[in-house]
Amino acid sequence: MGAIESAARAAFKVFVNGIKKVRRKAGKLVFSSKDERRPSINPNRKEREAGFSVESKVLNSEELLPGYEAPMSERPFKGPVFIEMGQDPASINTKPRKIGNDILFLYDIDDTLYHPSNNLQEMERKFLVEKFLSLKEGSTPEMFEDQLNVALLYSALFYKYGNLSLEEYWEMISEFDYLQYLSPDMDLRNFLLSMKNVRKCCFTNGPRDRAENILTKIGILDCFEVVVCIGKYDKTFCCKPLSESYEFVTKVLGIESPGNVYFFDDSENNIIKAREIGWNGWLITRDCNILDVSSRLFQAICNDASSPHFQEVPPDISSKMALS
Hints:
Blueprint: H1 2-37, H2 45-49, H3 61-64, E1 81-84, E2 104-107, H4 120-135, H5 141-151, H6 154-161, H7 166-173, H8 186-194, E3 199-207, H9 208-218, E4 226-230, H10 243-253, E5 261-265, H11 268-276, E6 280-283, H12 290-303, H13 315-323
Parallel strand pairs: 1-4, 2-3, 2-5, 3-4, 5-6
Organism: Encephalitozoon cuniculi (Microsporidian parasite)
Protein name: Pyrimidine 5-nucleotidase
InterPro entries: HAD-like_sf, HAD-SF_hydro_IA, HAD_sf
């Protein structure tokens, strides 16, 4: 029995030693494979740890973005709130910050924020006259003008007298490329952004997409808080110079001091109506430049130290500017 036990112990010892050797070899193999997978040491690591700078190339924005152009100046708004006329102001979900007693520069868009010398309105009118004559046999350009004076809007004219649905009218007018007549106006943009303590909005007889496209093309879309425009499919055809349109603007913008509103428009009828409700109206003619008129008016308001709320511009300045 003693011999058997000795033999068993010897065999067990050999078995245990064999397992230990296998484990040691396996450990070496695992360690070796881990080393092979380790990333190579960065030769600059010690320099960074020691506080030395490592030279690297930093690309500027021009290199990162081909065609990059630095912004002219900081944008005050992401974009204006668009509000269509012809609806109940109380039902509007998006409520702009009310004007209250603040100074408001309120701009028409067509032939006001861009100069009529670009012929956009003239060419558009020519396009529409030709369409009108083709739709109504025996019609004349004089009939077009007479009926437009009653309808006020081109869309209303074709709807009421041209037997077109509003959908058909907007599809037809889309054939006219009005944006080709416009170009960026960085001087106007910089001026609008430079005016402090003055609220800026638009009041146009164009639809939202037209207003947005024109303001974008000129480069001044983000200069305005609110754009009040017509509703494309509004069959009440609420627009300037109807009293309802001015009442609508007053309500949705929350205007509390009409004397603090300075309205710029190329239509004499629109200006007359604005003055009737207490706004300061400025007629923009072909002899005017909206930048010159606005900047001179703004300077006059700033110089009127007698009125902290700038209720009105001195009469002598108003009369001079109206003729400029």
